[in-house]
Amino acid sequence: MVSSTAEFTEVLSFFKALSDESRLKIVGALSSEERSVDELAGMLNLRAPTVSHHLARLKEVSLVTMRTEGTTHFYALNVDAMRDLSKRVLALKTVENIGRVVSEDAYEQKILKDFLVGERLKEIPASRKKRDVILRWLVNFFEEGKEYTEKEVSAIIAVHHPDFATLRRELICAKLLDRAKGLYWRI
Amino acid sequence: MVSSTAEFTEVLSFFKALSDESRLKIVGALSSEERSVDELAGMLNLRAPTVSHHLARLKEVSLVTMRTEGTTHFYALNVDAMRDLSKRVLALKTVENIGRVVSEDAYEQKILKDFLVGERLKEIPASRKKRDVILRWLVNFFEEGKEYTEKEVSAIIAVHHPDFATLRRELICAKLLDRAKGLYWRI
DNA sequence: CATCTAATTAGATGTATATCAAATTATGGC
DNA sequence: GCCATAATTTGATATACATCTAATTAGATG
C-alpha cells in the first residue's frame, strides 16, 4: 500500500515527463527501435545537449533505458514500464486517490475561520455550501438523543448569532435537526 | 482517419493539461463530485482567479464540464472524455503514430535541404507533397496579421525564386495566403 | 600520447505559465 | 436601483524549464 501523496507525485511526474513536445517525440521515435543521442538530435532538429537533457528526464521516471557501445549511448523505450505506468496512472481508482490528497477538510476549516470570531458567528453565509458548513458546526452544540423546547433551541443558537429564528429554520431545512409537537432533536 | 500530427497534438495537450500539480489536484477533487470555483480554491488554498484559469485549461481539452446555478459555477469531471482519452493514450498504436510525426518532421527537413541553397529555392518541386513543404517554409517570410500589396508579395517571393507568379498563386491555392481587393495576408 | 568523436555537465538566456491583486461582469436579494 | 457575492478577465510578477553554447569527460584510433 503506497501512501496517497506518494502515488500523487508519481502520477504527476509521469505527466510532466510526457508533457513536452520534444520528449513526446523522443518516445515516439524510440517506439520502433533504440537510437543514439546524436541520431535523435538529427531527427528532432535539436542540439545533442538538449536531447541528453530530455533523455535524462525520461530515465528518471524509468521510461527509457540506456546501453553503452563505445562512446555511443543507445536509448530504448522501456515498454514494460511504459505500459505499467500508463495503466496505473490512468486507472480511475488512481484519480480518486488523488482526490484524497486534497482534503475537503481544508475548505471547511477556511469557512469556519472566515465566519467565526471565537464561537460567535460574524454573519450567516449567503451561499448554500458555506452555510451548510456553518450549520454542521452549529448543530454540534446540541446533544445527540436529547429533546429541546423551541425556547431552548433559540437560546443555544443565540449564543452564536442574534438571528436564531433564521438559523433554527435552516437547521431543520438542512435536515440536521428534526421537530415534532414543539420539540426539537438532532438527527 | 485522423492525421498523425493531429493525434500528436491531442495527446500532447492531454499530458500538458494534467502535468500541473494544481490541475491534477482539481481533477482528483472532482472525481467524487462536482464543485464550485470557490470551493476548489478553498480546498487547494489558491485564489479564485487561479482556479478559474486552471478550469479553463481543463475545459479546453474537455476534461471538465460546467454547470451554472445562480452566480455559482459548478465544475464536474467529464468521466467519459477522461476514459476515452486515457484509453487512446494507452494504446500502443498511438505511440507508434507519434513516431510517424517525428519522421514526417525529418522528412520535411530533408526536402528543405534538398531544394534550398541558403534561402534560395533551386527549383519548384513538381510533386504536391514536396511543394507543400516548400510553401509552408515560404509563407514564414510573411508576418502574421500584416497586409501586403501584390507588388510586395511578389518582391518577397522573388528573393527566393524568380517565378514569383507561380508561387504566389500556389500560396493562395494552398490556403496559406488569402487575398481581397488587391491585398494579401497570411491565414 | 595526441586527437577525434559522442555524450554529458555547466552556465546563460528566453519563453511559457502559475499565481496573485485589481478591475470587470453577472446574478440574486433587498 | 443598489449592494453583496461568484466568477472571470486583465495585467503584473516570478518561477520553471527548454534550449543553446562552451567546457568537460570518456572512449576509440592513429
Explained architecture:
Chain A folds into 2 domains: 4-101, Orthogonal Bundle (Arc Repressor Mutant, subunit A); 104-186, no CATH class. The first copy, chain A, is 58% helix and 16% strand. Chain A has helices at 4-18, 21-30, 37-44, 48-60, 79-89, 92-101, 104-115, 128-138, 150-158, 164-173; strands at residues 35-36, 64-69, 72-77, 116-117, 120-121, 147-149, 177-180, 183-186. In chain A, the strands form 3 sheets. Chain A has a 3-stranded antiparallel β-sheet. The interface between A and B is large, with 43 and 44 residues. Chain A binds a DNA duplex (30 and 30 nucleotides) through residues 20-22, 36-38, 46-50, 52-54, 56, 68, 70-73, 126-127.
- CATH level-1 class of the largest domain in chain A: Mainly Alpha
How far is it from the N-terminal to the C-terminal residue of chain A, by CA? 36 Å
Number of strands of chain A: 8
Strand order of the largest sheet of chain A: 1-3-2
What structural class do helix, strand and pairing data of chain A support? alpha+beta
Q: What gross morphology of chain A would you assign?
A: rod-shaped
**From N to C, what is the helix and strand string of chain A?**
HHEHHEEHHHEEHEHHEE
Helical residues, percent of chain A = 55-70%
| Overall pLDDT level of chain A | 86
- The number of helical elements of chain A comes to 10
Looking at CATH, the homologous superfamily of the largest domain in chain A is Winged helix-like DNA-binding domain superfamily/Winged helix DNA-binding domain
Number of domains of chain A: 2
Question: Major β-sheet of chain A, in short?
Answer: 3 strands, antiparallel
Largest interface: A-B, 43 and 44 residues
